[in-house]
Amino acid sequence: MFLEQLTLKNYRNYEQGCWQFRNKVNVILGENAQGKTNIMESIYVLSMAKSHRTTNDKDFIRWEEDYAKIEGKVEKKNGPIFLQLTVSKKGKKAKLNYIEQAKLSSYVGHMNVVMFAPEDLNLVKGSPQIRRRFIDMEIGQVSPVYMHELGQYQKVLQQRNQYLKLLQSKKQTDDTFLDVLTEQLVEFAAKITIKRYEFIELLQTWAKPIHAEISRGNEQLGIHYCPSVDVLDEQQWSRIVEVYNDKFAKIKTKEIERGTTLIGPHRDDLSFTINGKDVQTFGSQGQQRTTALSLKLAEIDLIFSEIGEYPILLLDDVLSELDDFRQTHLLDAIQGKVQTFVTTTSIDGIEHRVIREADVYEVVSGQMMRR
Question: What is the pTM of this model?
Answer without folding.
Answer: 0.89
